[in-house]
TrEMBL record:
Domain named Cation/H+ exchanger transmembrane: residues: 9-390
Protein's recorded name: Na+/H+ antiporter
Principal location class: membrane
Taxonomic lineage of the native organism: Bacteria, Bacillati, Actinomycetota, Actinomycetes, Pseudonocardiales
Native source species: Allokutzneria multivorans
Subcellular location: Cell membrane
Keyword Ion transport tagged: yes
Ranges in a coiled coil: none
InterPro entries: Cation/H_exchanger_CPA1, Cation/H_exchanger_TM
Chain ranges passing through the membrane: 27-46, 79-101, 151-172, 178-196, 230-247, 259-278, 298-320, 336-356, 368-389
UniProt entry tagged with the keyword Metal-binding: no
Membrane topology: Multi-pass membrane protein
Assigned keywords, A-Z: Cell membrane, Ion transport, Membrane, Sodium, Sodium transport, Transmembrane, Transmembrane helix, Transport
Length: 515
């Protein structure tokens, strides 16, 4: 019942967020606070060793599907500065701060705290920054950073936890483990990605394909961890490989798979925040007399996390700016400041905090500090980022982005015409058929432009765009009437529900193609 309740609350919060114009990660964070403060809720204990395998694989896979290898090639400088160097600097700064402040904490335990609060959350950053018309370069950097910094932080975290429990630690062991775990995870991910693509190509049913993609990230993570490789990198590599080898004809698979993973991402995030709220309730009760003292330490750690990211991104903007790369990010101090304010901590920090073993030194205090970092870095930017974007004047480069969209639309248009000529040469198509298909191709090109302002084009193209926009509106109304009729037919005596569902699915797919 607890899990069902958390899922229901998460879904309702998404609806609330749409109405009040707040990103759902911010509201889900507040849900975790509410769960921690509301008395009388049942206790749900998940073994710490199951936290990472349960929560990280699906969210990493969902995020990695929205990026590509080519993006990493273009933005490798930004990713290196953020995913590797910044994570390690943050770990060191937070570890030193915690070691000086928290009584009885070992240095290894302080390093574990630094590792679990170091990696920003790509899902939260995208959900908060995406709708604000920030330059796509910046959002892409946030996505890429979040995928790789988890891998770096997790290796440091696992080594620190082992050292805190056993009492022994060797920096050389850490370097050797990372030198092995990263290449081994990439190799394993590529092998599993090839096997997954081979299997998916032989499954025609979209539902079964979506089910297989849910199994793949868990298999990659668990197998990599069994081989002492990076489970995070293995999952990311599998997702990137599958996305890179996507089948152009798999229309149903893309539609159903995209919706499926959006639901998985949403529910897993909500459950994770609810679980830490339940755990924090017990921690708050156990530390009732020390909350003010612990809160002061947590506030200082939050300041360290924010300041380190801000200073480093200011330096990074200068270093990256010297490269001359037109796709570089950040390009200036304004973009650097904006990226620093988008360093939301989310599910990775949650999962690592929940995974701290019960016998860990100062575990309850570390949990409170970790959750404080999540709240400060999630809620504060989530509420103030729109104002900061407006204040700094960092807006989407609409001309460049529109040009990129239109260039791709023209490529699609020309590719269709080339194929039409090839088919005409082989099959000697009727002239009227060719003319009709050419007209449809022009309509397709206008449809791909239809979300743009007609004034940006020639008068003929602008008129075609207006016609397509009107066509969409009319066709939407017509299809809505058709769907209503089929839904009504489902309630009539003697109606075949399966036949109704088949026809309704076809109408739904046709409606989806209009948007």
């Amino acid at each position: 019942m607890v899990i069902i309740g958390l899922m229901l609350a998460t879904v309702l919060l998404v609806g609330v967020g749409e109405r009040v114009r707040l990103p759902y990660p911010v509201l889900v964070t507040l849900l975790g606070i509410a769960v921690a403060l509301v008395p009388g809720l049942p206790v749900l204990v998940v073994p710490p060793e199951l936290i990472l395998p349960l929560f990280l694989p699906p969210l990493l896979y969902a995020t990695a599907q929205r990026t590509s290898w080519s993006m990493f090639k273009v933005r490798w400088r930004s990713i290196l500065l953020l995913a590797l160097v910044l994570v390690l600097i943050t770990v060191a700064a937070v570890a030193f701060t915690a070691w000086m402040l928290v009584p009885g904490i070992t240095f290894a335990a302080a390093v574990a705290l630094g590792a679990l609060v170091a990696p920003p959350d790509p899902v939260a950053a995208e959900a908060v920054a995406g709708p604000l018309r920030m330059p796509r370069r910046l959002v892409a950097v946030l996505q890429s950073e979040g995928l790789f910094n988890d891998a770096v932080a997790l290796v440091v975290y696992q080594l620190a936890v082992a050292a805190a429990i056993t009492g022994s630690y060797s920096p050389w062991t850490g370097l050797l483990r990372f030198a092995y775990s990263a290449p081994a995870a990439v190799a394993l991910g590529l092998a599993l990605g090839w096997l997954a693509r081979w299997t998916l190509a032989r499954i025609g049913e979209p539902t079964a394909r979506s089910g297989l993609t849910l199994v793949i990230p868990f298999a990659a993570y668990l197998l990599a961890e069994e081989l002492h490789a990076s489970g995070v990198l293995a999952v990311v590599t599998v997702a990137l490989y599958i996305g890179h080898t996507v089948e152009e004809s798999d229309v149903h698979g893309r539609l159903s798979g995209g919706a499926f993973w959006e639901v998985v991402e949403l529910l897993v995030t909500g459950v994770a925040f609810g679980l830490i709220g339940l755990e924090l309730r017990e921690v708050l009760a156990a530390n009732d007399g020390r909350l003010l003292e612990i809160g002061g330490r947590a506030a200082l750690v939050c300041v360290v996390v924010i300041v380190v990211r801000t200073v480093w991104l200011g330096m990074g903007a200068w270093l990256i700016g010297r490269s001359g790369d037109p796709e570089r990010a950040p390009r200036n101090w304004r973009e650097g400041l904006l990226l620093s304010w988008c360093g939301m901590r989310g599910l990775a920090t949650l999962a690592l905090a929940l995974a701290i073993p019960p016998e860990f030194p100062a575990r309850s205090e570390l949990l409170l500090i970790a959750f404080a970092v999540i709240v400060v870095t999630m809620v504060l930017p989530g509420l103030t980022l729109p104002a900061l974007v407006k204040l700094l004047g960092v807006q989407a480069e609409s001309d460049a982005e529109q040009a990129a969209d239109e260039a791709l639309a023209k490529r699609a248009y020309k590719a269709g015409l080339r194929r039409l000529k090839e088919l005409d040469a082989v099959r000697d198509l009727p002239e009227d058929m060719i003319e009709k298909i050419q007209a449809k191709q022009k309509g397709l090109l206008a449809a791909l432009y239809a979300d743009r302002e007609p004034e940006n084009h020639g008068e003929e193209q602008a008129q075609r765009i207006r016609t397509v926009q009107m066509f969409r509106e009319i066709q939407t109304e017509v299809l809505a009437a058709a769907r209503r009729e089929i839904v009504t037919a489902r309630t009539e005596p003697g109606a075949d529900p399966q036949a109704v569902d088949r026809v309704l699915r076809r109408l739904d797919l046709r409606s989806a193609q209009l948007h």
